[in-house]
Structures are given as structure tokens and as C-alpha cells.
Amino acid sequence: MSGLIYLDHAATTACDPKVVQAMLPWFSEAYGNPSTMYSIGAAAAKAVRHAREQIAQTLGACPEEIFFTSGGTESDNWALKGIAQSLAAKGHHLITTKIEHPAVLESCAFLEKNGYEITYLDVDSRGQISLSQLEEAIRPDTILISVMYANNEIGTVEPVRQIAETAHRHGVLFHTDAVQAYGQIPISAAEDGIDLLSASGHKFYGPKGIGFLYIRKGIAMERFMHGGSQERGRRAGTENVPGIVGIGMAAELAGASLEIRMQKERKLQKYLAENIMREIADVTVNGPEPGSGERLPGNLNLCFAGVRAETAMIMLDMQGVCASAGSACTSGSLTPSHVLTAIGCSAEDAQCSLRFSIGQENTQQEMDRVVQVIGNAAEKIRNR
Ligand SMILES: *Cc1c(COP(=O)(O)O)cnc(C)c1O
Fold first, then answer.
1. Can you name the CATH fold of 17-253?
2. What is the pTM of this model?
3. Angle 202-118-158 (CA atoms, 0-180°, nearest 5)?
């Protein structure tokens, strides 16, 4: 769409044209099933192997530690339910946070209905958990700690390395939902001490409906899908070959452009925040300071006092600007965001907050236009 200013990259991203190019042959000419022995099957198996290597490379992981799934939601479900099942004999207690994505929170709710106990950690006003509270929450029957790498609404980056270190000191496994962080900031599974990591293709310029779960070598894990022996017997079903080729290419591209994109997005993030706050009265930042390392480079979440986000979003849309009022997964419901509530926002302020998530194709001119459009919208709504 021409003239569209897309600032909702945390909801989804467009496929990079190079990703689409890489995927195309695998729909038609090269349609073999990777489990077959003849040449077009073997070619597909080789392409899947290559994608696994591309992803492993970006994480400092081994290809055998990457398992393809249908996306972030499946990866989160598998990590939580899989560990809950495989470690049931050790205990029935898991620790997570109040600001996780619904894919984690709803998996936890399901486990609670099935005899598991969950501790939901609080976060501070910037959205970070406390390591001492984490340590206090660990019990002899704790089997998993699941803390997101970075939050999808306010962009807070959690102290993942210290969380992993704390978990391991107590012999507990650590899972991280890295769907927002992977491809946006540097992640090393080995150096960070991560046992399980979820990621999703469509959040880093790859296709929708494909993701992966990193499972550190040696971790026993109940399978998520029962059936054939694909994914080394751990996730049955004929591989989504075009999707896998696409996510592999997207991972390689993201790895190669990471530093440049981070710099560019952080600059635009600061620029947009500073200009909005200079031009519009009564605007406050939700979450860590824009431009700081505690925040994802592309995320900006602002509260416009007295400006209903849903109304503002529709006015922005009419001017060709895409932003988000709450996360896509919770919008449509009238309850204020659980993330903003957890960092201490009032229900009123939470409902007056907009998320702008910047991506690789955005420009400074676009930011200027957004400041103007949001300024006009805020003024109209406030003067009603
Ligand atoms: C988008 C998102 C998910 C879900 O991923 P899908 O691939 O859309 O299922 C999970 N966690 C976080 C933090 C996300 O941003």
C-alpha cells in the first residue's frame, strides 16, 4: 500500500523480498516430501537442513537443537507443556511473569487446571523482574522458569543471563519467549545459558505460520505432535518446506543486518519519542527510556493523557498510519493491557496508550508525518 506508514512491526512484518524469492521454488517445482528417498525429496530435506543451520548460526547453537514449529504460540505451548510432562515426577511448580504473552499465560492457566502450580512474578515500573524475588520463588519442586526475552508491548529486555544463572544454580530449566527479541537484538543461546527458546518467522521479516523452538541438547522433552518421525521424532507432521526455507533465509538476513538495524531503529525511536513529547502535551513513556539498552530498539509505547487509544488508532488509520492500541492479541477486548497494569499504569492511562513499533523500512520523514498526525488526533479527541 503506497503512502502507508507501518509502525506495527511487533504485530507482524512484511516478508523480505529475498525471503519470498527463496521460498517460491519450494511450492511448485521442488515440492518433494523431505521424508522420501528420491531426488526431489532429498533436495527438500537438504533445504530443511540448510535452514536449520542458518538459524543455529545466529544463536550460537547446533542445528540439532532447532525444532521447527508452526510459530511462536506453538513453541511456547510446547516448551511449557512439554517440560511439565517430562519433569512431572520432579515437581509441579513453574515460575513465570505477569507480563508474558498470552501464549505463555494461557499455557500456564491450562497447566493450573491440570494440577500444576504457577508463580507469576511482579515487574517494576520499567517492566523488569527482580532477581531476588525470582530466587525466593524457587522451590524444590520447581521444574521450569519461563521469562520472556523482551516484552511485546513495552519492549523491556529482561536480564536473561542472570535469570538463567539463577535457574541453573537451583537446578531448574530456563525457557525464554524470544519472539520479540530474536532477530532484533543479539542473542546467544549458549552464552545466555538458555535451555529452551521460542521464536517466530513473521516477527523478523519471514513468513507467518512458521517458528522454531530451540531445545538445548540433552533435555528430555515430551513431543508436542504425535505421528511420523519428523524433527527427529519430536514434532510430527510433514515439514512446511517453503516456510522453513523462508524462516532460514529471514534468520540469515536478520543476523547479517542486526547491528545496522538496531542503530537505525534506536535513532528513530528516540527521534519519534522526543518529537512527540515536544509537540504534544501530557505524553509519558511506558516502560524503559527510549534509546536505552533496556528497551528493544524498535519499540515505543506512549500514554497520551485523555486520548482513548482505540479512537486515536482509528484516526491514525484514516491518515495511513498503523499503530497499536494494546497488543493485537488483546485488542477487541475492553480490559486494559495486563502489561501496562503490571507496571503500575492506571486502567485509564492504559487505555490511553499507543504502541509504535519501528522496523527496517521506516524513515525519519515518516516519523515527522506521524508526529503531525498523532498531534492532530490528540487535539481533536481532547477538545471533544
Ligand atoms: C507474536 C508473539 C507470540 C506469538 O507468535 P505467533 O507466531 O504469532 O504465534 C508469542 N510471544 C510473543 C512475545 C509475541 O510477540
1. Aspartate Aminotransferase; domain 2 (3.40.640)
2. 0.97
3. 50
- Say if residue 77 is exposed, middle or buried (CB neighbours under 10 Å; 0-12, 13-18, 19+): buried
Contacts with 269 (C-beta within 8 Å, 6 or more apart), sequence order: 290, 291, 295, 297, 298, 299, 300, 358
From-to residues of CATH 3.90.1150.10 in the chain: 5-12+258-382
Kindly report, as residue ranges, where domains of CATH 3.40.640.10 are found in the chain: 17-253
Q: Write the single-letter amino acid at 136.
A: E
Cβ-proximal residues to 92 (8 Å cutoff; 6+ apart), any chain: 84, 115, 116, 117, 141, 143
Are the C-beta atoms of residues 97 and 147 closer than 8 Å to each other?
Answer: yes
Distance 359 CA to ligand 1 centre (A): 17
d(CA 332, CA 335): 9
What whole-number distance in Å separates Cα of residue 80 and Cα of residue 83? 6
Q: What is the pLDDT of residues 28-39, one digit of tens each?
A: 999 999 999 999
Domain 5-12+258-382 has CATH 3.40.50.2000: no
Q: In this predicted model, what pLDDT tens digit does every residue of 347-372 receive, in sequence order?
A: 999 999 999 999 999 999 999 999 99
User: Which of ligand 1's atoms lies nearest the C-alpha of 200?
Assistant: 7
Q: What is the pLDDT of residues 144-156, one digit of tens each?
A: 999 999 999 999 9
Ligand 1 centroid – CA 104 distance (Å): 9
Quick one: which of 220, 164, 171 has its CA closest to 188? 164
Determine contact, residues 266/278, Cβ cutoff 8 Å: no
pLDDT in tens, 162-220: 999 999 999 999 999 999 999 999 999 999 999 999 999 999 999 999 999 999 999 99
Report the separation in Å between the CA atom of 364 and the middle of ligand 1, taken as the mean of its atom positions: 28
Which DSSP helix (H) or strand (E) runs through 69?
strand 66-69
Q: Which residues line ligand 1 (CB under 6 A)?
A: 71-73, 76, 101, 103, 148, 152, 177, 179-180, 200, 203, 211
Asked if residues 187 and 57 have their Cβ atoms less than 8 Å apart, the reply is no
Please determine, for residue 331, whether its predicted confidence score (pLDDT) is greater than 60: no
